[in-house]
Structures are given as structure tokens and as C-alpha cells.
Amino acid sequence: MARKVLTLAEVRDGALRNVSFEAISTAKTIAEGGEVVAVVVGASVRSLAPELIAYGADRVIVVEHEKLATYTPDGYAQALQAVVEQEKPEGIVFGHTALGKDLSPKLAAKWQSGLVSDVVAVEATGGNIVFTRPIYSGKAFEKKIVTDGLMFVTVRPNNIAPLEKDESRTGAVVDVQVDIKDLRTIVRDIVRKTAEGVDLSEAKVIVAGGRGVKSAEGFEPLKELANVLGGAVGASRGACDAGYCDYSLQIGQTGKVVTPDLYIACGISGAIQHLAGMSNSKVIVAINKDPEANIFKVADYGIVGDLFEVVPLLIEEFKKL
Ligand code: FAD
């Protein structure tokens, strides 16, 4: 059954986030041969449309307004509501990001629809679309189908592969004017705690430190290793609570959920709440002094040793590559 499916493109610092392309690929599966329409919202975002087409969008809707320069829930909801009313799609796909998690339930409630959140796989079975999502902090997976209403979906970053970028793809770019009413919130300033380096939720490589790192200075070798590998630094809550790093780096049940290609856990015991945020990483390397540490149960490669000896050796070896 061919469907029309919208996706919301996410923009940060003037560039599209990877999850925008993963949402398009998810929407392609849901559309089953129907049309995938990417929606990009902002103050000046039209120039991003060709990239969305190159990643598989059949059409791009551009909603530009000075009041949409930064994300606000009611501003974006007004923009998307107008587009959904005009387009009447069967589904709409967001990234399972801070923005997507904030906005999608607001719109789903407006349409009195359910929301399939945190999707890690999608399959078209010639009728129903089957969504897979983790439950019980990643200990099990459930499969869901939507039987009624507009399909609202959020996809976990780094799980569903984007389509190959192909600049020969063509598609229409359409401007939609939306009269944005007064906003209840106005963003005056954005203060970024992790201004430097790679975005944690989209990083392909993460080097994470726990209480075993012992101090803020102890994170320096981890930062260097992340740098050498082109990755980002993360942390356990133990490390954040101890004041070794900022809470914006926290990975786990009450922190960020990440799925990098490579996760290197240094001095992290592997509490269930930490595993909830990283156990779906493709390859997990654990460095811990304690051979009984729980982290070794989920690790593909385990190194029993002192991280202050092991990490410098890894830096040295990776620098040779
Ligand atoms: P520890 O458990 O103290 O482990 C430190 C590890 O470092 C040990 O295994 C030790 O052997 C090893 N070590 C020490 N020195 C070295 C060395 N030199 N070299 C190598 N290894 C060394 N935690 C999260 O991480 N994320 C969450 O989102 C989160 N949410 C929570 C929500 C709730 C409601 C609760 C109750 C808890 C939550 N926690 C979360 C906390 C979680 O239960 C653990 O307390 C925390 O993950 C422990 O952090 P850690 O592994 O760094 O510290």
C-alpha cells in the first residue's frame, strides 16, 4: 500500500543532522513506493533542500520564518501542523532526539494518534509496517504496528542506515508560508556546554569514562583517544556525579542513548542504568581493573587492566594507523 510520509529534517548550526537522512530512509520503507516529503523548518534553510533530495526525499517543503530561527515547541508545532493539514500524509517521522522527543507527542496528541517512539528497525510486510523498539532499558525488543490514525514515529539515531547519497536524484522544492502566531517561548541565547568536538548522539566512536577515571584531569587521555579516532567523549553518571565532567556527557537511562560503531568504556562498572544507554553499540570495548566487572558481560573485547596504562598504549597504536 503506497503511502505519503513526511519527515522532519533537523538542522544544527546551519547543517542537516544525520538523523534527518535516517528519517528519510525509514519513511521510504513506510511509504512502500509512495511519496516521501522532507520538511525543513527555520529562518533560512532553503539551501539545504538539495541534500535532502540527494538522500532520497521525493519532495522538500521549506517553511521559513524569522520566528523559526531557533527551535521552540509551539513555533515548530504551528509550522508542522499547517504542513500536515495541507499534505494529509499517512505518516510522519522524526529523529528520536531532544527536538523529536519534545515535538512529536505534542503533534500526535493534536491528531489524537499514538506515537511509536525510539524505533531501531522498520519493516514493510506488505500490509502492516512493523516497528521494532527497545523496552526494559534495552533488555528486550517489542514489535509494534499502527492500526489506526496518522502514524507518528521517532527513530533512534545511528540505527537505521540512510540511503546512499546520490546527487543525481531529483525532486521538487516547495515553499509553504505559515503565519506563525505569537510564541509563548522565545529563545534569547543558546549556551552550549559541549561546544567542542563531535556530537555525542551521532558519534561513530565514543570513548566513555567512569568513576575509575578518578578526576577531571583523568579524562584528558580519554579526550586524546577520542580525538585520534575522530570520536566523542562520554561518561557514566558515576563520573558526572563525582564532578569529573559535565552532565551533558552522561550516557544511560537518565542520560543520552547512543549507538556508535565503537564504544570504549574506561573505568565503568556496567550498571544496568549505564547499559541502557549504550548496550546496542555495534562494537563494545571495556577497560576495567576488575575482571568481574559487569561491563565485560556486554563487551565484545575486554581488557583487564589499569586504564591509565591501557589508554596511552591505544593512543600510540591508533596514531600509527
Ligand atoms: P562505579 O560503579 O564506581 O565503577 C567504577 C569502575 O571503574 C569499577 O568497575 C572499577 O573496577 C573501575 N576502575 C577503577 N579504577 C580503574 C582503573 N584505574 N582502570 C580501570 N578500571 C578502573 N548511571 C549511568 O551511567 N547512566 C545513567 O543514565 C544512570 N541513570 C541512573 C538512574 C537511576 C534511577 C539510578 C538509581 C542510577 C542511575 N545510574 C546511571 C547510576 C548507576 O547505577 C551507577 O551508579 C553508575 O553507572 C556507576 O558509574 P561508574 O560505572 O562510573 O562507577
From TrEMBL:
Q: How is the cofactor bound?
A: Binds 1 FAD per dimer.
- Residue stretches making up the Electron transfer flavoprotein alpha/beta-subunit N-terminal domain: 5-195
Question: Which cofactor does the UniProt annotation name?
Answer: FAD
The answer, when asked if Flavoprotein is one of the entry's keywords, is yes
Residues annotated for FAD binding in this entry = 211, 236-237, 250-254, 267-274, 288
A family per Pfam: ETF_alpha
Q: Which GO terms describe its molecular function?
A: electron transfer activity; flavin adenine dinucleotide binding
For the keyword Transport, the answer is yes
* Cross-referenced InterPro entries: DHS-like_NAD/FAD-binding_dom, ETF_a/b_N, ETF_a/FixB, ETF_alpha_N, ETF_asu_C, ETF_asu_C_CS, Rossmann-like_a/b/a_fold
Q: Supply the alphabetized keyword list.
A: Electron transport, FAD, Flavoprotein, Transport
Q: Name one GO biological process term.
A: fatty acid beta-oxidation using acyl-CoA dehydrogenase
| UniProt-listed PANTHER family | ELECTRON TRANSFER FLAVOPROTEIN ALPHA (PTHR43153), ELECTRON TRANSFER FLAVOPROTEIN SUBUNIT ALPHA, MITOCHONDRIAL (PTHR43153:SF1)
Q: Which family does it belong to?
A: Belongs to the ETF alpha-subunit/FixB family.
What is the official name of this protein in its record? Electron transfer flavoprotein alpha subunit
Q: What is the lineage of its organism?
A: Bacteria, Bacillati, Bacillota, Bacilli, Bacillales
